[in-house]
């Protein structure tokens, strides 16, 4: 009796394990209601595993999360939309003087009529760009390139790519003098948002405008042109300060001053000319008539001057020039003292010669020797 029950139980366990695999038994036989099968006691047992089940607090850490490709795609589209409404602005300082009259005569078709009495710059519009990136270009203001050239050597380009900038700078070089061996460059950006509540809004390395017009271009280019020119003059003054620093270190070691007077005067002239160029040519403290007439342009002007720290940078430049001026006065006094010492020695020599001649005359008269 026990053997029969054991064999029947083993048969049921094997049958249940075979019915789990569908490939093994695709169509299991139906059970007959007339012959009830004995109850399988093993079915009441819970499955046992050597690995502990994950805690419900940490179960979600093991869940597989599919990457959200739609979110990445939306971020890329948002970035592309931001770049689409961006207008590139590039400022260059490539020379110390530009003949605006000859340049205006050569590019008369592209000249934008001035709206103020300022004569230290000209604005040009190029609606037929020489280089295209493969996109269809329509005849509207958004596809036009703008260039503002200042008499002191700055040129500001609007809506111009990097590979197109050299073409427009050639227009400036043909009428420039004092070309720099290495021109200075600065990048900025403008974004247009017609639905903007205010007329302008600042951002990191860009400005948001409700509407970009020609007067806005003039105001923005004036600040960018002054800023890039100020960088050049600051570098020139830094070179002068470095030379005086080397002179002072040499005096500290040797205790003497061996600088030529001519070279000192050249440094004096260079420092004074840089200060005069910043104040007179660049017009750092001249008012803008466009900003004077309309408050929204004055807001743009004040924001950009604060953004580029024009006043603070000029203050640093003025401090360095005062240091140069102090050293110049000191070295001039040293040279003047040297010159005074030389004159004193010359006087002493002449007086000595005169005394010798007087003594010789006295001796001749006393001895009666005729020479």
Automatic annotation (TrEMBL):
Location of the DUF155 domain: 147-317
Entry GO CC: mitochondrion
Pfam families in the cross-refs: DUF155 (PF02582)
Record InterPro entries: DUF155, RMD1/Sad1-interacting
Similarity comment: Belongs to the RMD1/sif2 family.
Name of the molecule in the record: Uncharacterized protein LOC111377581 isoform X1
Lineage per the UniProt record: Eukaryota, Viridiplantae, Streptophyta, Embryophyta, Tracheophyta
